[in-house]
Amino acid sequence: MQRLQKVIAQAGIASRRKAEQLIMEGKVQVNGKTITRLGTQVSANDQVTVNGVPVDKEKPVYYLFYKPTGVITSVKDDRNRTTVIDFFKHVPERIFPVGRLDYDTSGALLMTNDGELANRLMHPSFAFDKTYIATVHPIPTHDQLRRLAAGIHLDDGLTAQARVQLLASDKEKGTASVQLVIHEGRNRQIRRMFSALHLHVRKLKRERYGFLGLSGLHPGESRALKPHEIKTLMHEIRHS
Predict the structure, then answer these.
(1) Which of 5, 66, 205, 216 could form a disulfide with 107 if both were Cys (CB 3.0 to 4.6 A apart)?
(2) Which PANTHER family match (predicted)?
(3) Selected catalytic residue, list 102, 129, 156, 170
(4) CATH class of residue range 130-209
(5) For the chain, what is the largest distance between any 2 Cα atoms, rounded to a whole number of angstroms?
(6) 0.70 exceeded by pTM
(7) Which of the following CATH numbers is that of domain 62-125+212-238: 3.30.70.580, 3.40.50.300, 3.40.640.10, 1.10.260.100?
């Protein structure tokens, strides 16, 4: 048995808070009966609808995907470009990406059908570290690295503090490899941070998503999360 609002949230229809609001507004039915009481328990055999639309209660699944460059982080694309879902045609559940990676950015991406988990991970208040490796030109100065760590003023506000490390530099090519660890998820944030300092990103990869790394995976490959990894994810979002 599970609480009704949790079933709705896990189906990806709404966050748990929004699901509670839908219940109180009389928009949720269980076996044809309108439910307005929070905390109502339902089983896998109960038929749940929201605004008359059935809620599918799939078993939650979780995958770590090594997104290649040139792939859209979306369930579908109106220009028929390759999307991350094209790599999961073998998965019967209706999964979706948690957050996004730009078209020209590769790296770690979480895929799931657990809407509640996705909503929590993507919420601005949830500080989940994301580790990026950027190849930039020219080689950043010590002051530029310091400014990246302290926060950059972008058109949508000051970025949060980051952990920044110069990994390597090539003086002949004038390029450097820089690691950044951030917990925000603004649109094209890393590229915009470097651009604000007149540094051009030639290559960008998300090396880690929280504690989940890409070890053993090649671009385009994925793996199911292990039970202890799922447990850790759940623990982190519940104590955030």
Answers:
(1) 205
(2) PSEUDOURIDINE SYNTHASE FAMILY PROTEIN-RELATED, RNA-BINDING S4 DOMAIN-CONTAINING PROTEIN
(3) 102
(4) alpha beta
(5) 72
(6) yes
(7) 3.30.70.580
